[in-house]
Amino acid sequence: MTAPVPACSADALLTEMQAAHLLSLTPRTLQTWRLRGSGPAFECFGSRVRYRQATLAAWLSARTVSTAAAGEGAR
């Protein structure tokens, strides 16, 4: 079952399932990244983990690679 991402403000808090859906990942991948200290920033509220939609968008943008830059790294 997928968790649709609500159409709301960029500051919205998303569940792990919603964040994974938005990033086209599994929740397990996000869990692994948290344990390793990598991946997008998150917030904890007790045992609940939440991701800000704006943080996920910024994290994705920071990892965008242009075709020209990708070719240069392969040399």
From TrEMBL:
Domain (Helix-turn-helix): residue spans on this chain: 14-63
Domain of life: Bacteria
InterPro entries assigned: DNA-bd_dom_put_sf (IPR009061), HTH_17 (IPR041657)
Protein name: Helix-turn-helix domain-containing protein
